[in-house]
Amino acid sequence: MPTKNLRLALDLHEFISQQRNGYASLQLLSRWRHEVGLKIEIEAFLKKYPHIFDIYVHPIKNNQCCKVTPKMADLIAEEDAVIRENEPAIVKWLKKLLMLSTDGTLNMHALWLIRRELGLPDDYRCSILPNHQSEFSLRSPDTLTLVTRDENLAVADVEEWRIEKGFREKLGNWQRLPYTKAYENNELHPIHNVEWLKKHIVGILHELLSLTMEKMIPLERFSHFRRPFDMEVNLRELILKHPGIFYISTKGSTQTVLLRESYSKGCLVDPNPVYNVRRKMLGLILSGCRGIDEMDGPIQLVEEHNQESSNITCKGNYNPTPISVATLRWLTSGPANGLGVHSPDRETTAPIKGGGMAPS
What we know:
alpha+beta; Nucleotidyltransferase, domain 5; 4 domains; three-stranded antiparallel β-sheet; 12% strand; disordered C terminus; PORR domain-containing protein; PORR_fam; PORR_domain; RNA binding
């Protein structure tokens, strides 16, 4: 899976950049490869991506070493610059994330694990948090606490949608269940009905994914948010029951959850600067050992990949709007809604490659 290999490449870059001279020997990298989940030999992986990694013989030590190519280094610097220019939005996303928690706290390790998905700089602990002490505090070295809730932010992405005409057939029986807002404190308003609870958790998962740069998170990362978000259910099973909202990609050894309505034909419907830079990085991954044009080669390769993967991610000419409407109606409707039509869980679906289901 190209995106997984990009994550591996970025993890290796992080390790290499921590070395004193900005390079690492292949011997050292081979000892560290299991830490990033690399299952093949380090040299074989590095040689697959010559546009990202430069392997050379050290002139003095006479051993094989590796450093990041100038092309990849420029893209990493570009991504870092975009992220740092986005500090106000990052603060907003962190506050919303903490507001999803039952007690306004999150484990710093859990945040670290999804820092790239959230668009956080690696050094956000010392570059962002100290600048906003009126909003965040470190209760302990490993716990981030929200100082004050901002009710103006307590509006989930799904609540801001607008219904278009012509999609009432998408509405489900679960619409009749009261909607418990993603940012509502369940300790003050306990949910006793199991189906209501599941509906609330689906809303939380939807909001968490909507806060990410690429509207996707590796499935196993959700386990670190089960307790703080009060999601003590089988999340994978719940996600699979809602193929109209979520899509699980099982390509490779990593299962990744995507927000379905955010993608059309393999591309993000509403791209952002971080996503655009990562598309260029993905182009270097997809180029492999081929020679590519310096300017538009990576983007062209990504477009080719998106064209090929559109039949996987979204079967046929997928239009995200109907799914968005179904999601909105199902998540936000209350008992006053008397529209008794079929459940979204029973939408006509067809299997697709890579796991999950796609609209027929």
